[in-house]
Amino acid sequence: MALVSCGRAQQTIEADPMIGTGFHGHTYPGAAAPYGMVQLSPDTRTEGWDACSGYHYDDNTIIGFSHTHLSGTGCADLADILFHPSAESPEKSGTRYGIDPYTFNHKDETAKPGYWAVKLPKAGLVAELTATQHVGIHRYIYSGSGRYILIDLNHALSDDKVDQCSLRQISDTEICGMRRTQGWVENQAIHFYARFSRPIISFNDAERQALLEFAPDADTLTAAVGISAVSIENAKLNLDTEVPELDFDQVREQTEETWRTALSGIRVKGGTEKQRRIFATALYHTKVTPNVMSDVNGQYIRHDGSIGTMPEGRKYWSTFSIWDTFRAWHPLQTLTDTAFVNDMVLSFMEMYDASGELPIWPLWSGETGTMIGYHSVSVIADAYLRGVRGFDAEAALKAMVRSSNINKKGSVLYNEFGFVPSDVKKEAVSLTLEYAYDDWCIYRLAKELKRPQEEITLFAKRALNYKNLFDTESKLMRGKNRNGEFQKPFSPLKWGDAFTEGNSWHYSWSVFHDPQGLINLMGGKEMFVTMLDSVFAVPPVFDDSYYGQVIHEIREMTVMNMGNYAHGNQPIQHMIYLYDYAGQPWKAQYWLREVMNRMYTSAPDGYCGDEDNGQTSAWYVFSALGFYPVCPGTDEYVLGAPLFRKATLHFENGNDWVLSAPENSEANRYIDQMLVNGRVYTANFLKHGEMLKGGKAEFRMSAYPNLQRGIQEADLPYSFSVDGV
SS in 3 state form for 524-576? Predict the structure, then answer.
């Protein structure tokens, strides 16, 4: 899986899917194709927050292997169609067969992109898994006397409830079935069609289960399972199309080649082996979700339950953790895969057409409504303004405006008061700040499309609503009541209440579109930098009255000695780059390296919080390259400093953008001088359009900060207050 090269000879560094499976990373180690509908992975637990992906590294038993999983989320769902192979017939108790989990050791486990395997000597079994986009392929090698597979449709995570299912045998080598669950997403239906390499000699029904027995005349059994959200017929079509022959090794090789291609767009050299492995894995995790939800014939289930059909050559996507991913994951795709982004926007518009609102957190064939904001508008505006034009922008703008006015989480109050009152709604400060940014995104697209001035002015005015919650005394954002008075008492350290999964120290920086406006409110650049510094200096308070049940654990605040900086949750992840707006980019360069060193590891505990569908990985990918999209909707990436000696981005248009920092090291983390295409470059940002033309950015790195670089007004990134209406 050649991704990273170092030194004179090419050194292969593979992504490690085990990274993130420990602590609270909530990733899974199993087999998937890039953005596949199938995520075939072992399940080790079903209850608790750390069961979100079905697998946790601390466990030493495996329940079985199910075909759908979530990657890095904070909620649990899916884990559909569990296969539990065994060398002995499981015992039946009442109407169900019991499942005896396998004891396993991680030293007997192998995980690579597109492939997972485990040796289970006590169970007399070796299990191997691989996958195409719509098909999961199992290979079991038995060493015991029997050859059994128990299929359990009742297996589910957390509070997911099965309310409908069926299982039946089609032929001596084929079975099919379906199940529907009510959980995080309602009415989540999955259909499957399975084909086996050897005849079934008995098919025994049980309650939401079937026990399949095969003749013991061979040790190896292969199974291919096609799935579909639409129908069993489509599941069979997906199976027949993607796996016409039951050849496990051929499918594995094809999927590994697909991953090689998917991961070839960015290559790095230098750094340590651990850093290269972390980078490779982060890039891998940015390509696990979203999931394709259209079948090979283009059919998919719409949010109103009807069947839609995508035009030939297009795919319908779901599983979008948009509150997390609008920040860096979506901009990373806009930089590297515009065709994919175009289909995502078209999928958003399909969801809007079916439901009347742009998606917030869509999963499978429905909407969870999880988290805040209406950040589809950020994704759409950023895509269009960065040159993705294969969708109807006028229709998209109409959907954006409608969604901004009907959002169920307080937009009516926001439009009435200019903020969401804290005495009416929880999370009111977070809602207000994110609505203001989303309104700015609408303003930007309306301006680009030359809409009537009154429409442009309306959203420009709403984009400044963040100012209504700024407290001049604390110089932080603070909840305000309907009567216009700030809420009392107020502690900027307390989690929850007016804030979403954080406190005022985390959320006061969520003015992505107007850092200069925030600088002005805080009293100028010097005070702004002092406040930024304070995030790392003010110690957190650890007691239930401050945290309660808001978050399970923020590791960096407990053991990393970084004050109130909470990288494990998204609201603060852009904060360090704000030093660039105040003319002190060297502080960003210092702290970014600290976060990359402290908050990411190459072990199973490699993420400091739930990885969140690629967002926390996308942060690392961008930051290791040396730039970051603080404000999606502009054409700028704000500079940090590169982690590697060399990085090459291969763009779709055939051009390359090369970042070269030959003196880069742990000590030399500061940019002393920067050249772009041979010319001295002092700005604290790079332009999207200029990068796509191809070229080279050269960094002269130093152990000491250059206090004179990036300090002029012309060097500072975009702010709405400077741009004006």
Answer: CHHHHHHHHHHHHHCCCCCCHHHHCCCCCCCHHHHCCCCCCCCCCCHHHCCHH
Contact predicate 555/23, CB 8 Å: yes
CB of 300 within 8 A of CB of 294?
A: yes
Cβ atoms of residues 56 and 43 within 8 Å: no
Distance of CA 443 to the CA centre of its chain: 26
Give the position of tokens 């982060």.
282
Q: Residue-wise over 295-319: b if at least 16 C-beta within 10 A, else e?
A: bbbebbbbbeeeebebeeebbbbbb
Closest CA to 671 of 679, 657, 661: 661
Question: Residue type for 404, please?
Answer: S
User: Phi and psi at residue 486, in whole multiples of 5°?
Assistant: -70, 145
- Both tokens of residue 57? 């590294």
pLDDT at 725: 57
Structure confidence at residue 159 (pLDDT):
84
- Round to whole Å and give the CA distance between 129 and 50: 23
How far apart are alpha carbons 660 and 655 in whole angstroms?
Answer: 16
* Cα distance between residue 171 and residue 200, in whole Å: 8
Paired tokens of 306:
């009807």
pLDDT in tens, 356-391: 999 999 999 999 999 999 999 999 999 999 999 999
Residue with tokens 């060399």: 646
Please answer whether residues 268 and 624 qualify as being in contact, where contact means their C-beta atoms are separated by less than 8 angstroms.
yes
Taking alpha carbons only, the member of 691, 634, 652 closest to residue 338 is 652
Q: Quote the tokens at residue 378.
A: 């950020």
* 149 torsion bin: left (phi>0), alpha (psi -120 to 50), beta (else): beta
Tokens 């360069």, located at residue: 589
Q: If you compute the radius of gyration of the chain from its CA atoms, what whole number of angstroms results? A: 26
Q: Residue 406: which pLDDT band, with cuts at 50, 70 and 90?
A: confident
- 686 half-sphere exposure, CB direction, 13 A CA radius: 29
CA dist list (Å): 535 to 279, 429, 505, 531, 563: 26, 18, 7, 7, 6
Cβ-based neighbours of 95, under 8 Å, separated by 6 or more:
206, 207
Sign of the torsion formed by the C-alpha atoms of 224, 229, 230 and 232: positive
**pLDDT computed for residue 3 by the predictor:** 36
Q: How many CB atoms lie within 10 A of CB 530?
A: 15
Q: Are 125 and 87 in contact (CB under 8 A)?
A: yes
For 595-618, the pLDDT digits (tens) are: 999 999 999 999 999 999 999 999
- The stretch 286-307 carries a mean pLDDT of 98
DSSP H helical segments within 199-328, as ranges? 232-242, 248-262, 273-285, 322-325
CA nearest to 163, candidates 178, 187, 181, 151: 181
Exposed, middle or buried: residue 680 (CB in 10 Å: 0-12, 13-18, 19+)?
exposed
Where b means 16+ CB within 10 Å and e means fewer, 192-207 reads bbbbbbbebeeeeebe
- Cβ neighbours of residue 178 under 8 Å, at least 6 residues apart? 164, 165, 166, 189, 190, 191, 192, 232
Give the Å distances, CA to CA, from 293 to 34, 298, 303.
Answer: 13, 9, 12
Closest CA to 151 of 209, 221, 75, 78: 209
DSSP state of 288: T
**Phi and psi for 238 in degrees, rounded to 5?**
-60, -45
Helix, strand, coil percentages (3-state) for the chain, rounded to 5, are: 30, 25, 45
Task: Report the distance separating Cα 506 and Cα 546, nearest Å.
Answer: 14
Residue 540: band (very low, low, confident or very high) from pLDDT cuts 50, 70, 90: confident
Prior bond of 489 cis (ω within 30°): yes
Give the tokens for residue 339. Answer: 């065709």
**What is the rounded distance in angstroms from the CA atom of residue 464 to the CA atom of residue 468?**
8
Three-class secondary structure of residue 692 per DSSP: helix
